[in-house]
Amino acid sequence: MRLGTWGNDLSLSFSWRNYFFLFLLLFLAACSDPKIEVGVLNKIAKNKAEFKVINAIGEGDMLPDATDSAIPIEISCTSTVEMMEIQNPQTKEWKKISDLVAGAAFSCGSGNSLKFNLPLTHVAPYSAPTTAGDRRQDFQIRWMVKNMYGETSVYYRTLSALFQAPTVSLVASDINIANTSPGQYAVSGSCSLEGGEVAIEGAPLSSSVKGICSSGSYRVVVNVDAALVDGGSALKVQHYTGDSYRAYAEAVKNILIDRTAPTLNISSPADGAILSLSKVRTGQWMVFFSEEIIILIRREK
Description:
This protein has six helices and 17 strands. By secondary structure, the protein is an alpha+beta fold.
C-alpha cells in the first residue's frame, strides 16, 4: 500500500467481504451485552401460554368431584414452568401441589399434561350459602417460569370452584276448611338430587317439615297452622344435599287462605210461607227435592 494511493487502496480494502465481517463483529459485540441477551430470552421464556388449565370452563369455572371433596385440575405446561402453587382464599396461604396432594410431583415438559385433585378444604373452605342458586368461590393459582439466566417470573390466575345448585318445583293448593284438618294438606313437586333433602316452611305451616327426593319427586303431608287468618301467604321449599351443603335450590308459591265458612240467608219466601201450585207452574220458583232438604230457586221473568 502506497501513501500516494491511500484513497484508492482504502476503497479496495473495504469490499463487500469487509462490510460483512464488520457487521458480524458489531452484532457479536452487541449480543455480548447481558442486558440485550436477557431481554431477548425473557420474551421467549415469559410466555403465559406455556401454562394452561385444560379443564377450566368459560372464564375459569372448575367443577368439584361427585363427593364435593376435591376439584380435579388438568394442566399442560412446558419445561420452563418450574412450580405451581395454590392459595387458600381465607387464610391467604400458598401451598405447592406436593404439599396438598400426597405423592404428587409437579414436572413439566414439552406437551406434558398433569392431573391433580385439589382438596376443597384448601381451595374453597366451607361456608354456608346465603342465597339460592349456583355458587362460585374464587381462588388463585400461580406458576413460576425461569429463563436460562435464572430469572424467575410469576404469573397468576383466578379460578372459581363452581357449586351447581339442584332444581326443585313446588305444587300446593289453596287452603280452605276442607284441607286444614291434620293429614289433609300435601306439598309436592319435582327435585333433581336423588336422596337430597327437601325442606318446606312458611306461614301456613305450624312448623317446618322435611322430605326426601326420590325418583325425581317428593311429597310431604303437613299440618296447617290452626291460627291462620284469611288472606295471602307463601310456602317455600329448599332442596340440597344435606348437612354442610354449598348450594341449594328454592321455589316459592303464594297460597290463598280462606277458612271462613260461607253464610246463606233466605229472604223470600218468608219462613213458613206456603207456595201455591200456580207460582210453581208460572216459573217463579223451581223446586228440587232430596232426602233431607227442599231447595227453592226463584227464577226471574
